[in-house]
Amino acid sequence: MIEYWMEFINNNITILAGLCAGLCVTFSTFVVVDFIGFTSSRYRERYLEEASVEMDEVLLQIPASRILDLSLALSALAIFVSIGLLAFFTDTLTLGKCLFVSILAAAMAFPAPRLYLRFLRKQRLAKFNEQLEDALLSMSGSLKAGFSIIQALDVVANENRNPISLEFTLLMQEIRLGVPLEQALMKMHERVGSPDFELVAVAIITARQTGGELTVILERLAGVIRERVRITQRITSLTAQGRLQAKVIGAMPFLLMFAMSMIAPAMMNMFFGSIQGVLLILLAVTLVIIGFFIIRKITTIDI
What is the rounded distance in angstroms from the CA atom of residue 23 to the CA atom of residue 110? Predict the structure, then answer.
C-alpha cells in the first residue's frame, strides 16, 4: 500500500506541486485582499472624520462622504485627462508612461478637495483676525457707554460682518442657552483656532475674575493685534519671492520631463521602459517634493 502511494506521488509530482502552489497563491490572495480591505476601511474612517472637522471649521453643511466621492471622481478624471494628453503629445504610448502619469495625476488630484477646504479655513481665519481689531474697539466703546460685557458681545454679533459676526452670534447663542461666558469663550477659541482671540478670551476671563479695567485691556489688545497683522503682512511680502521660487523649482522637473518627452521620446522611453529608470524618476520626484517642503518651511515664519 505504501509503495503504491509512493509511486503515485512520484508519477504526479508536477501536478501536486502545482496544486500546492495554487493553494498558497489563493490563501495569500485572501490575506492580501483582507488586509487591503481593512486598511482602506480604516483610512476611509479617518478621512471622513478629518474632512468633517475641516468642513465644520468653515461652516459647510456638506456630508463628509461627498468630499471623499469628489476626491475619487477628480482622481479618475485626472487619470483620464492625463492619459489623453499623453496620447496626444507623444508618438509612442508605453505601459510605463501610462502608469507613471496616471499615478502622478491621481496623487495630485485626490487631495485637492481637502486642500481647498484648508485654503478656505486659512482665508477665513485671516479675515477673522483682521476684523478682530475693530470688534475689540467696538466692544470697548460699548463698555464705555455703560453696556455689560454680554451686551458688548451682542453688538459685535449684530454688526453683520462675516465671519466674525457669525462666530459671535454662535457665542451669544451658547450664552443664551445657559453656557457660562468663560466656557463659551474657550469653546469659541477652540472652534476658530485664532491665537489672537485666545488673548481676548483670556483677557476677558481674567478681568471678570480680578475686576480689572476691561476697556483699557481691550484697547491694548486691539493695538497688539493691529501690530501683529502689520508684521504678518510685512513678512508675507518679504517671503513672496521665496515662496514663488519653491513653486517654480517644484514644477520645473515635471516641465523638463514633458519637454524631453517631446524632444527626445526615445530617451524617455528608456526611462519608462526599465525598472531602473522608473526608480530614478520616483527618486527625483521624491527629492523635488522634499525640497519644496524645505523651502516652504524656511519661508514660513510664525509670529
Answer: 37
pTM of this prediction?
A: 0.68
Peptide bond connecting 180 to the previous residue in cis, omega within 30 degrees of 0: no
3-class DSSP state of 135: helix
Whole-number Å distance between alpha carbons of 289 and 281? 12
Tens-digit pLDDT string for the chain (303 aa): 555 555 555 555 566 556 656 655 565 665 555 656 666 667 667 766 666 666 655 556 666 677 777 888 888 888 888 877 777 777 666 777 777 778 888 888 888 888 888 888 888 888 888 888 888 888 888 888 888 888 888 888 888 788 888 888 888 888 888 888 888 888 888 888 888 888 888 888 888 777 767 788 888 888 888 888 788 778 878 777 777 877 787 778 778 877 777 777 777 777 777 777 778 877 888 888 888 778 777 777 666
Contact 100, 81 (CB under 8 A): no
Domain boundaries, the chain: 65-110, 118-238, 240-298
* Residues sharing a CB contact under 8 Å with residue 140, sequence separation 6 or more, in sequence order: 214, 215, 218, 219, 222
Dihedrals φ, ψ of 301, to 5°?
-120, 125
**Alpha carbon distance 87, 104 (integer Å):** 16
Listed in sequence order, the residues at least 6 apart from 137 whose beta carbon sits closer than 8 Å to its beta carbon are 218, 219, 222
Cβ neighbours for 186, distance < 8 A, ≥ 6 positions apart:
201
Architecture of the domain delimited by 118-238? Up-down Bundle (1.20)
Distance CA 121, CA 55 (A): 9
The torsion defined by the Cα of 125, 188, 140 and 133, in degrees rounded to 10, comes to -10
CB 199 within 8 A of CB 224: yes
